[in-house]
Write a structure and sequence with these properties.
It is a single chain. The protein is an alpha/beta fold. The chain has 2 domains: about 200 residues, Ribonuclease Z/Hydroxyacylglutathione hydrolase-like (Metallo-beta-lactamase, Chain A, 4-Layer Sandwich), CATH 3.60.15; about 35 residues. Helix content is about 35%, strand content about 25%. It has a 6-stranded mixed sheet with strand order 1-2-3-4-5-6, with helices on one face. Strand 13 and strand 14 form a beta hairpin. The protein is elongated. Bound molecules: zinc ion (ZN). Zinc ion binds next to loops.
């Protein structure tokens, strides 16, 4: 399996070029703001892009669709509940510094359980709504591409348009955390992780937003107390040093 990561743009979005076999067929997942290096890699290695897959429709994951499609002719695939986002302009224009990077419309609408064939291998579509209604993860053997659903130590926001905390945590708990421990997670932002690591340590999944707020508040309080204590000790030390300076000099003999 070859997986090449290209991280670009304001939000450091990860685009992946994935080839399950040493052959020439690859998938491009979430092409973002800069596609020059990604396209050079595809060209230099003589790769055949069989599909461009968007884990969801946010512009930082889709604004490279046009460039990759123009260069390769590959079809754009996105969940059916997300396809309308491809033509949304506002955020895309903002992210691309005023230059419109419209994505061409979807060529294939995906739904849960669909497979995307890459050579003799298939990638399974897992519908994971919550960050957006049509968010998906893509699974191939021990690899899982999670977009903004699950990331190392965190999860995607659910307060955007169409987002839902309950849907997001259900997606993660019921669809992703039931997968085996040794699955490697390739998120839409940030470093790689595993299902095991996230199941054990990702506090955002185990707790409600209220609990997380409490935890963050008490961490903040602990930090403030710690800093107060440090300041107090420094003051004492300074006072002691000053007292030592002012102490009468020992008798000279
Ligand atoms: Zn997103």
């Amino acid at each position: 399996m070859r997986i090449e990561t290209f991280t670009t743009g304001l939000f450091k979005t990860n685009a992946y070029v994935v080839g399950p076999e040493p052959g020439q067929d690859v998938l491009v997942i979430d092409p973002g703001w800069r596609t020059r290096e990604l396209l050079a890699y595809i060209r230099d290695n003589g790769l055949n892009v069989v599909a461009i897959v968007n884990t969801h429709g946010h512009a930082d994951h889709t604004c490279g669709n046009k460039a990759v499609k123009d260069a390769t002719g590959a079809p754009i695939c996105i969940h059916e509940a997300e396809a309308k986002r491809l033509s949304r302009f506002a955020v895309g224009a903002l992210l691309t510094r005023g230059r419109a990077h419209w994505s061409p419309p979807a060529d294939r609408l995906l739904k849960d359980g669909d497979t995307i064939l890459v050579g003799a291998d298939s990638f399974e579509v897992i519908h994971t709504p919550g960050h957006t209604p049509g968010g998906i993860c893509l699974k191939h053997k021990k690899r899982l591409f999670t977009g903004d659903t699950l990331m190392a130590g965190t999860i995607g926001r659910s307060d955007g348009k169409g987002g839902s905390w309950d849907a997001l945590s259900a997606s993660i708990m019921d669809r992703l955390f039931v997968l085996s421990d040794d699955i490697q997670v390739y998120p839409g932002h940030g470093p790689r992780t595993t299902i095991q690591r996230e199941r054990r340590s990702n506090i955002f999944v185990r707790h409600s937003p209220e609990q997380i707020e409490d935890m963050l508040l008490s961490a903040h309080e602990r930090r403030m107390r710690y800093e107060d204590e440090k300041r107090r000790q420094e003051k004492e030390k300074a006072k002691a040093a000053k007292a030592a300076d002012n102490a009468p000099a020992p008798p000279q003999s």
